[in-house]
Amino acid sequence: MTLKKLIKTMAAGLLGLGLAATPATAQAVFTPEQAMVDLASDIHDYARARNPDFQLLGNGAIGLLEVTKDESEKSVEKLLSSLDGFLGESIFYMEKDGKTVPRSPEVLTYLDAMLAKPKSRGLPVWTLDYVTGRKAAIDRNKGTIRSYISMTSATTGLDEIPPEVPHENKKDIKKLKDAENFLILNNPMKFENKKAYLSALAASPFDVVIIDPDYGGSPLTADDISPLKEKPQGGQRLLLAYLSIGEAADYRSYWDSSWNDESARPAWLEKPNPAWPGAWRVRYWTKDWRNILYGNKESSLDRILSAGFDGALLDVMDGWMTFK
């Protein structure tokens, strides 16, 4: 099954991916796939030079594991060398006509084939599906059979701490491959205040906790982060920061309010993502966008490193599809 066919088969609801033309003359020297791999590789090198243990988890990178005319075997190898783990959303279930239904065997076969590549390199594969009840139990069982770490969430809001934690343990987690469970909590607004939010995170028993590096528009500090690195039952865990590399958001500190005016928007800023209000697709290979991501004390990755996070979740790595 080709990636082109898969894109038509799999639901695009999470990103609302649209189509944009890439000049035919540029195809000989530029492909969106290679540009995304290059960005992940450069982020890896930059972060590791400052923290040799910094971990990168890629979300939406599965399509980049397929060798095609625009994605070489060399590029796939480069991607595998740049990430410490792969995360896939809606792997076993998808939304269709307002209902949550299982993925087709054809799609699962494709995904298994792609994810066998990081598995063969000893890289962990994590899945996140938006299901509850019996479907959640089935989902985790499907992951166990495949040696994935599979977690579920009731909603795509990722704003709650699940009441049950599979495979709770006391061991020290030093690498992503050591983890037996994980929590992604991107939206803290359900918590009464920052103190309540951080206290709830500290009390959760997860091996890896992935959160937004900001709270209420201000960056979390080293003092905020440090107490979260020890599991309440014993053992150290990893704390990762959310970092979108394929989309910009109008609520981030780098956003200039003048960009709300179409005539004043920078060239790297693409069209808004209709599925996520406030999110904008970006020309992620441009220097200006890279400067926002890393390379100076005000950039997103540098603030994450300064706060003491153990790694980052690189989100919207499938943003390259926008430019196909």
Distance between the termini: 18 Å
Average of per-residue pLDDT values? 91
The tally of beta strands, per DSSP, is 15
Total of domains: 1
Radius of gyration: 19 Å
CATH fold-type name: TIM Barrel
The coarse silhouette is globular
Strand content: 15-25%
Helix percent band: 25-40%
**Count of alpha and pi helical runs:** 9
Specify the biggest β-sheet.
Answer: 8 strands, parallel
What is the topological layout?
Blueprint: H1 3-9, H2 32-50, E1 55-59, H3 73-82, E2 85-89, E3 93-96, E4 99-102, H4 105-120, E5 125-129, H5 133-145, E6 149-152, E7 182-185, H6 194-203, E8 208-211, E9 214-215, E10 218-219, H7 222-225, E11 238-244, E12 247-249, E13 269-272, E14 279-282, H8 287-293, H9 300-307, E15 311-315
Tell me what the structure shows.
There is one protein chain. With 324 residues, the chain is an alpha/beta fold. The protein has one domain: TIM Barrel (Alpha-Beta Barrel), CATH 3.20.20. The chain is built from 9 helices and 15 strands. The strands form 4 sheets. The protein has an 8-stranded parallel beta sheet. Strands 12-14-13 form a 3-stranded antiparallel beta sheet, with no helix packed on it. Helix 2 (32-50) packs parallel to helix 3. The longest helix is centred in the first third of the chain and has 19 residues, at 32-50. It is globular, with a radius of gyration of 19 Å.
